Amino acid sequence: MTDRPENNADDIGYECIKHQIRLDAGWAKCMDPELYCKFRPSCMIHFLEKENARARAKRMR
Length: 61
Description:
This protein is of the alpha+beta class and 61 residues long. It has one helix spanning 44-60, and strands at residues 13-16, 21-24. The chain has a domain at 29-61.
């Protein structure tokens, strides 16, 4: 069994412009966040990671 969420027909995918791949919403994670990416300011994957990190930090308080 994997940690991957169930694949849903309504599930959204996100595209990594730098690597030119499409990721399921459940797997959407920056592949190399430490490296420079000129697309990062407009990257939905990066945005979602930041939002999730903020939510986790808020729960920890």
